[in-house]
Specification:
16% strand; Alpha-Beta Plaits; alpha/beta; FAD/NAD(P)-binding domain
Amino acid sequence: MDLVSGAIAATAVLLAVTIGLTHLVTRRRRQDRDAVVIQEKVEKNLHIPRSLHPVIDTDICIGSLSCLKACPEGDILGIQRGTATLVHADHCIGHGRCAAECPVQAIRLVMGTHERGVDLPELDEFFESSKPGIHIVGELGGMGLLRNAVRQGLQAAKRLDQVLPKGRGGDAVDVVIVGAGAAGLATACALHEAGRSYRLLEQGTWGGTMYHYPRRKIVMTEPATIPGFGKIGKKIISKEELLETWAKAIEKIQVKVEENNQVNGIEGEDGAFQVHTSKGIISSRKVVLAIGRRGTPRKMGVPGEELQKVTYGFTDAEQYAGRRVLVVGGGDSALEAAIQIAELGSAEVALSYRGAELSRAREANRNKLTALAEGGQLTLLLPSQIKYVTETEVRIEWEGRELRLPNDDIIVNIGGDPPDGFLKKAGVEMRRYKGEQLGAKTGEDYVSEVEVKKRRRLRRTLALYACLGAVIVAYLASRGWDYYQLPTVSRLRSPMHRAFKSAGPWGHGVGIVATAFMLSNFLYPVRKRTRALTGLGDIRDWLNFHVFVGFMSPLVIAFHAAFQSKNVLATATAGALGIVVGTGLIGRFIYGLVPSVDGHSEELELIAGRFERLRAQVEPLLAGARERSRLEKLVASATAEVPRSSLIVALLREPASGIRFRLRLVRVRFLFTSPSQYARFRISVLRLRRLRFQIAFYGGLRNLLRNWRVMHASLAVFLVFVMTVHIGVSLFLGYGLK
């Protein structure tokens, strides 16, 4: 039987090793592929995000990589040195699902970068601008997605209801909302349900950005609960269906939208604003701006663009049937217009963009456009520049020559000029964000109110798990305390032995419950690795449950085994369980404590700073020495970057390498003019070499701990295999019933 058990254990080990190696090879290939893409992006200057994007703190990231499958845009994130990294920065549009799927909050959403700042209104965490009383929600504040706009509108309304005194101040309404897009509508619905007076103004027709989407455009959003109506939206929804749902909400809640009423200016102070509109002046205590960032459509700046055939929006492709159409722009709006018109099959469509690549658009749109161009249904002019527009043609500079393109219609989608003048006149100050979170003060480590609430909830959850674990252990211990204290021989004669041995009614029952409990530990990796389950509950709650079950499993299994191990399978199961738990704790708690070489650890920076100062001090010691080049080679050897390798290999090599280096030092002592000069040189370069190894040590240790995660996953498979066999042996062969 022991021989069979050993064979089974060996098979399980082979299976675990195979899975582990496969995992390592797969991850290494992905990492190498991502490194090539990043380098290509840098060479093409496409590595800088355009707007809201994630930043991964590698000193917190535990390498879970659950964020990789979270983004609906595809593989925007990748892997570098075992942690997540932004690979396709030019395609990121700030969904934020990666941050929501990070179990340790290592991802922050920020605006702009140090290389390319983004100018936005100065806002606090309640969306109040630098002008007290004026709140800004939606795209104008930097959040361009529909779900973000709705969420901000609801939060702003809740805040306004909290700070506005009850009772009306004369003829003034509580809030004037400017803009009836998703953010403005959500604000109005929430204020209406709160019993607040408001006026919702729209310079055109309600719907904002949604209304101007092309027909049948598919929108990716998330459901939101509108007070007084219920859920609105879903993950994938058409423009028509989305507008129809909003129309039902407006009708049910009885929200009144004042269409074709343009706001020209805002005067006054908090509590007493005068909103100047095309239909008169409105007195208001607060103002919410939900007008978007584009403001006035941006013009091409070429002769002839004032002709009626030039338009700056697109809604219906069928109106261009049988016509010669030029679409100008490289974003999603331009590509979607060109695609819909080309798919009619009766129009001649061309797309002109000044860039060599359509990096601003989503991958799905780029792929569809490329397929249409390759099929001859559309002409791509990249890069090109519009030079002149006439009634019958458009002149374009393309590939170093002027192209005269017959033309009936031009659709211009090149963005818009933000309403900076309007904001400045209203007293709202702008700020340039350079890799900072929205709502954060310049230079501060910002923690939002939402994050504070999440951390409080986390502490309560951990306290609950601790209490629950203590109760479980106390209950199990109290039931068999007298039996577990007995020596092995005495247990056999105890009347409690029949019930509390591992194959007894109590021990066997505990084993069954413990097995089911332990298998629930695999819910977290399934949730993490399955794209379809993304967003199902908070990933942090899944991880906390995973850690709780993993920590409790060996304790409960110990009661099942009555704190004894009598066969190879039981021993292998217990050993594997212990290692799985140990490696899991390392991956969850210890891995994140080791600073990455690319991180911002204070200790690492101090070591690196000391290294640079010492290297500067060595230079004067070489002055006057004979064969200076020989000494410089020695210094270069002491300061060269440590080759990337396993930490264990590096530690094994270091003693012999250190001895060889010291021997080289002895050989150059005669090159110095005095013993004291040589002594100072020797001490300095040895310190340099030691600091060099220390810096590399952090990266090596992190690499080692990262591989422990592979061991954790592989041994989990080993554990399931051995545990299954152990249960089978116990049930069918009667193992341990004697």
